[in-house]
């Protein structure tokens, strides 16, 4: 049973911005590059506190990525953020060649990810960015569960990473339930609730929905473990194999296409190390549409109620 409590809804983009600003007071060589949407991605917090280290480039994502790579080669720690659809796609070549090929430390914020960006519609809903980014060599890919974790992950990435990092986060306020003082470990997953019948492996905003789904499943006699995979690359193989051996069934949940995302990453581990029945819950190979976030999550089967229903049916079929 989940004992996690919502401390109040807060957007993960704000947690990211707070993390960058806090790290800015520690690292005097940290610089931030803006893409004309500074407030939308939380970087206004840093810009107001350290205006001498904030550089606005306008809507020029490809240029920003290339400049960031150059700054990293001169011992700066560059952070840039824009909507994930622009970071992962419009600037994909510069991230691949200028940043990843040179293996330079650049922190990239992929904002407004997932279907829950809502009214902005399909053109602004990044549903394939995990697939694109995690295929690139050298890069670390983090998808924090809430605002507190987004802040902790951002600070950890700036302090500890020795190469490029992509941090994925959303726009809408979501339940903030992890500890403000958490010890965030890049590459380490977390078992939030233990269980024996099935493991629900989730990432990003879907972790809270998975926790709520586990409560619904408990009412139906299903003992579900919930695992937070906040680092999709490198993924925590040891934890995934361990929970697979314990439950015998795994369901993954993500605000992303079912192709190439968290589910694919988990399947790559389990099919080679401990093959068991798996189900992948995500966007079913289609574009999203405009709507309120809660309406879209319901339509595409990504809220707690729909996740619980899908997991229950899967367990019933397999047992």
UniProtKB/TrEMBL annotation:
One of its GO terms (molecular function) is transferase activity. Keywords: Isoprene biosynthesis, Magnesium, Metal-binding, Thiamine biosynthesis, Thiamine pyrophosphate, Transferase. InterPro entries: PDH/Transketolase, THDP-binding, Transketo_C/PFOR_II, Transketolase-like_Pyr-bd, Transketolase_BS, Transketolase_C. SMART domains: Transket_pyr (SM00861). Residues 10-176 form the Transketolase-like pyrimidine-binding domain. Its cofactor is thiamine diphosphate. This is Transketolase family protein.
